[in-house]
Amino acid sequence: xxxxxxxxxxxxxxxxxxxxxxxxxxxxxxxxxxxxxxxxxxxxxxxxxxxxxxxxxxxxxxxxxxxxxxxxxxxxxxxxxxxxxxxxxxxxxxxxxxxxxxxxxxxxxxxxxxxxxxxxxxxxxxxxxxxxxxxxxxxxxxxxxxxxxxxxxxxxxxxxxxxxxxxxxxxxxxxxxxxxxxxxxxxxxxxxxxxxxxxxxxxxxxxxxxxxxxxxxxxxxxxxxxxxxxxxxxxxxxxxxxxxxxxxxxxxxxxxxxxxxxxxxxxxxxxxxxxxxxxxxxxxxxxxxxxxxxxxxxxxxxxxxxxxxxxxxxxxxxxxxxxxxxxxxxx
Length: 331
Prior knowledge:
This protein is of the alpha/beta class.
């Protein structure tokens, strides 16, 4: 397929490499001139994906028209806070028959929409597929075995994405629970910030296990309130991605949490980070969405107080431990 990846960060570069390795003609749109130059001349992206060599057939460009012209598959990997603007800027260039793949994970501030809803708003009439699951970009670029989910209410579009992306080292499952897959992919980043904070404070593995497990319960509660199926959260886009992001050394969100837990101001931590840590933005959006839906999410609320209200991490964690006792299986 003629494929375009919109977003030249780590994950966008890894997906472009994956598609090119599968024999597809791939264009990579990046806003940063140095990324375009490096991909075209050195077949690498040292700014966002150091340590990986990219397929030499990838053609990078900063021209949206050049990137989107005649593309059959368009993969969006722009950060959540700019996704709407990026998709909208190329709206007229996306063919009606093209499939839009949304690899961005998050909840849009203000509208509180999931990423596939944002893309549907901006690209009416196109098939939209969410791509999510436990997948560090560097490991994908290096060909390490990975399994993810392609979710859509259009079964043929999900199957087309499954075929396009699958390789001997990259296994794609299909799913029709788009909401569950998206909520899992978005909220696992918040839980990764939480586990990082606990690590930065100096808490142990017991605390991390508790946060992961209770975090999964919160993710499921919100997802079900939005219409998702609870079993989706036991799969790759739920538990799988949650465990990876909360424990893996390559997790940006966990790393941000660690530094905040050590007492560094959030603004300072983010200023020193080249790539976007989606968990920070999603924390604010998830807290607002939970309030709108009347869903209890104490871990999300605690992370929000630490990040945005300057509550001391130890105090926020103590508040979690001091909550009213209840059955494990609560509503």
